[in-house]
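hiii, so i know i said id send this last week but things got crazy w the move. better late than never?? heres the sequnce for the chain we talked about at the cafe, plus the structure i predicted for it. fair warning i was half asleep when i ran it
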Amino acid sequence: MADMREQAEKRHEELVQLFSAQSESAQSDTVSLINKRLFDLGNSTTSLLLLPATPKIFYGRDGELHKLIHLLLQDPARVAILGPGGIGKTSLALAALHHPDVSARYINRHFVSCESAASPDELVSSIVSHLGLEPSRNAPKHIFRHFLSGPPSVLLLDNLETAWEPLASQSQVEEVLSLLTDIPHLTLLVTMRGAERPGRVRWTRPFLAPLEPLTDVAAEQTFTDITGGLHDDRDVRELLGLTDNVPLALQLVANIAAFEGYDTVLSRWQREKTSLFSEGRDKRSNLDLSIGLSLSSPRMLDSPGALQLLSLLSLLPDGISETDLLQIKFPIAEMGRSKTTLMRTSLVSLSHDKRLRVLVPIREYIQHHSPPPAAICRPLRRFLHGLIMVWKDYQHLSTAGITPRIAANMGNFRTVLAHGLDWNEPDLTETLYSIVTFDSFCRISGKRSSGMLDLVPPYLEHLSDHRLHSAYLTEFIVTGQYHTIPDPAAVERIAVEHCRLAGNVSGEDLFLRLVHTIANRGMAFPRPWSVTKQRWP
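okay and structure toks below
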């Protein structure tokens, strides 16, 4: 690679030297003759020898495939397929290269795996080896000559990010790409993890958007094709929920379900999480390995706060708005740069509702291997606590935007508050208040119970906060229609006593609310109070 820059500067001169002895018409005749002879050898046979097989189960990418084929038929075409690991970039590329219109357009279609090419030199060596050329110091020149004197061809560089991501290598890799794009009848197609295209290449417009997970319909079709049997739709939806419709995770969970059954897969998931899908030895059959490769990329290693931010986002199934992310004061180094790094590597994406989200397999992997430290979680819990308390204090008013903001974070409340139930946390009492109030929000919003009240009693036993006790017991009684209360009278008596001991307006409100609830349920109120009492005894 030492002389690559010098060679790049001379490449236009090379074009002149190679064809200087021929007129324009003679050059055209030469290329046409080569094309004809190769075609006579068997167009399909010649091309298929250079490509892996087309994907056999391929749903939900019709739109992307149509756009990609349209781009590849332009002259010249330079296209990058981007997206997170396991999203199906290689499958889409191969489906396009096997399409009849593309195979008719290009005599030769080359597939070069760059997964193990960790440097510019190794990238060039991979291309040289694939083309069957002799290794030498002038390898870039030989590659250039080979394609220049050949027929219309497409070169697919799969997993180019391995060589391109190191900052020290980017310029040289981009020089190789620039050299290749100077060949007028060579189409360049690359697949790369992330959402960023290399520079120094005039990529064909409109750009192909980074790939997203499959639709629910496409995911179910894929699952059904792999498992090949009758299934309960509810079971399938639960299993697909583990994958977030990421093709690699979907394929792996379907293969396991086909042999072990749905119940076994769900049971194993509770114990093993993403390691359940990581029994293979390469990234195409090992989900943990695929995610690990993204996390160990040079861009991630160069941004110390990126992993911290990712660990925080792994707690948020609903994602987080960019406004909230900036408003909450997280102790994360270079927040802006960290967010940009995660988006460029496609470990985080911006959803249609403008929230930063992490896919389920990545969230589960991070929570297991790199959970967020307490110092990062506390500001988030305080923020959610403040949000739910504003709703509690002003729920009788049309507080601008507060209900939609809570509704957009329902899953976040459950995971973040449960994560804060720890005696070592200084805000444990606040967290318990948040859980009780959040349950009230869920009930009043028509979502029944939050399912979190059962987490509270073990902590109440060791706290002497009467207001918290009364709030919990009152909410417990109000939601009694969703669960069994073994001894209602005893629970009511204890709740009222805690209300009395709380000795404040909030406690009296809880008492009156309790009276109203019991009356509506037609239950006897415990002595010495009656349903007509309006004041404390």
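btw DSSP finds 29 helices and seven strands in the chain. thought thatd interest u
miss u guys!!
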